[in-house]
Specification:
The protein is α/β, with parallel strands linked by helices. It is 34% helix and 19% strand. It starts with a strand and ends with a helix.
C-alpha cells in the first residue's frame, strides 16, 4: 500500500505529521512511503533524512494525493483536495468532526474512508495511538510556561537575605490530560497549586501531584465510559461558578482547561470573575479551540480586562512543534502498526473492531460512526 504524507498548508502550523523515524517504522511494515518535498523544513528536517528512512519524495502534490491508498496528515484536509483523492482511500488526520459537518459529508460523498485521530477511544490498548491526549499534554505544559514568561512574579518561594518571596498561586480548572500537565508543570516551577474538576475520581491524581483539590457540591457528576467529563446542567454550572469565583479571586494565575468531548467548552470564568482578580494576574484559556472557558477571551489573542491578562492562544502544542511532531508521528505509526497485516502488507480495515468503530467517520460513501451520526441527527 502507498502512503502519502503532504505538507501542512496552514502557514502558522510548524508541526509535521510524520518524522523520518515514523517513516522508517511504516517502511518496515512493507508500506511504500511518499512525502511531499520540504515536509520537514519547519523543523529543519531535511528531505535527505526522509530518503534515508526509505521514503520517496513527491514534487507533485495533486498527483500523489490521487495515487495514494492512505493519506496521512495532521490537520483536516482542504475541501478542494477531497476531489483529488481516489475512491476507497484512507485519510487519517485530526478532523474535528463534530464541528465540520460539511467536510465530513464531502468525504463521505467522495467515498473516502476518513479516520479522525481525536476520536480514537481512550482504552489501554490504544494509549500509544492517543494523539488527542499527546497534544493536550503538551498544551498543558505550554500554558504554564506562557504564564511564567508573562508574569511579573516568579513561581517558587525564595528565602533570601533581601526577604522571603511567597510562591505564586495557580488555580487549574479542569483536570483532564492538559490540566494534569499544567498542575505538574506549575508544581515543578514551585507554585502553590489548587485544582478543580467536576469528576471526584480525579482528586487522588491532583493530590499525587502535590496540589490541593477544590471540592464543590454539584450533585451527581462524573465521567463518560471514555474518561471524559460529563456536561453539567445549567444549575450545576451556576453552583460551580460560585465556588470558582472565590478561588479565582485569590489566584495569581488561572489555567482554564475544562472541556467536554464533542461539545462546546463550558463558560466557567465570567468577565466579572476576571475583574475580581488581583492586579497583574492572568488567565490562560487552554479550551479556546472548543469555544473557551473564559467569557471575555478572544480566539488566538491576548486581551487585558482591567489589569488582568487573558491569554487564549490557539494550537499551544504547536509552540513546541518538535516534540508535538514526535508524539503525533509516534501515535500514527502505532495506529498503522496495530492494524497492519504484516503478511499481506496491507492495512486491515475491520469495522467490527471497537477502536476502528470509534475513529472511522466515513466509509463506502456513508457516515459510519455512531457518535457522529447521533450528533448530526442521522
Amino acid at each position: 500500500m502507498r502512503i502519502f504524507v503532504p505538507k501542512e498548508l496552514d502557514p502558522t502550523e510548524r508541526r509535521v505529521s510524520l518524522l523520518p523515524t515514523g517513516a522508517a517504522k511504516l517502511r518496515k511494515l512493507g508500506a511504500e512511503i511518499e512525502v511531499e518535498r520540504g515536509i520537514g523544513e519547519s523543523l529543519n528536517c531535511a528531505d535527505s533524512e526522509y530518503e534515508a528512512a526509505g521514503a520517496n519524495l513527491s514534487a507533485d502534490r495533486g498527483q500523489s494525493l490521487a495515487g495514494a491508498d492512505i493519506i496521512l496528515r495532521l490537520r483536516k484536509p482542504p475541501s478542494e483536495e477531497i476531489a483529488l483523492m481516489k475512491k476507497g482511500c484512507i485519510h487519517t488526520s485530526f478532523l474535528d468532526p463534530f464541528k465540520e459537518r460539511e467536510l465530513v459529508l464531502r468525504l463521505a460523498a467522495a467515498e473516502v474512508t476518513a479516520v479522525s485521530m481525536e476520536m480514537i477511544p481512550r482504552k489501554t490498548v490504544a494509549q500509544k495511538m492517543d494523539a488527542l491526549s499527546s497534544q493536550a499534554n503538551l498544551a498543558g505544559y505550554v500554558a504554564v510556561i506562557i504564564a511564567a514568561t508573562r508574569s511579573s512574579r516568579i513561581f517558587p518561594m525564595l528565602i533570601t537575605p533581601a526577604g522571603t518571596i511567597k510562591p505564586l498561586h495557580v488555580f487549574v480548572i479542569g483536570v483532564g490530560v492538559a490540566g494534569l500537565q499544567a498542575i505538574a508543570t506549575a508544581r515543578r516551577l514551585g507554585a502553590a497549586v489548587e485544582a478543580f474538576d467536576t469528576r471526584p475520581v480525579v482528586e487522588e491524581q491532583v493530590k499525587s501531584l502535590g496540589a490541593t483539590f477544590v471540592k464543590a457540591d454539584l450533585g451527581e457528576t462524573g465521567e463518560t465510559a471514555s474518561g471524559y467529563a460529563k456536561p453539567l446542567t445549567p444549575e450545576q454550572l451556576e453552583k460551580q461558578r460560585a465556588v470558582m469565583a472565590q478561588h479565582i479571586a485569590q489566584a495569581d494565575v488561572v489555567i482554564a482547561a475544562a472541556q467536554v468531548f464533542g461539545k462546546k467548552a463550558p463558560i466557567i470564568v465570567t468577565t466579572e470573575m476576571v475583574k475580581s482578580m488581583k492586579p497583574g494576574s492572568m488567565i490562560v484559556d487552554i479550551a479556546i479551540e472548543s469555544g473557551g472557558n473564559v467569557e471575555c477571551s478572544k480566539y488566538d489573542a491576548e486581551v487585558e480586562i482591567g489589569s488582568v491578562q487573558v491569554i487564549a492562544f490557539a494550537n499551544l502544542a504547536g509552540r513546541v512543534a518538535s516534540n508535538a511532531s514526535e508524539m503525533y508521528s509516534n501515535n500514527v505509526s502505532a495506529f498503522f502498526d496495530h492494524f497492519w497485516d504484516k503478511d499481506a502488507k496491507v492495512f486491515r480495515l475491520d469495522l467490527t473492531n471497537d477502536l476502528l468503530k470509534g475513529c472511522v467517520i466515513t466509509h463506502a460513501g456513508n457516515i459510519c460512526n455512531d457518535m457522529i451520526k447521533a450528533a448530526y441527527g442521522i
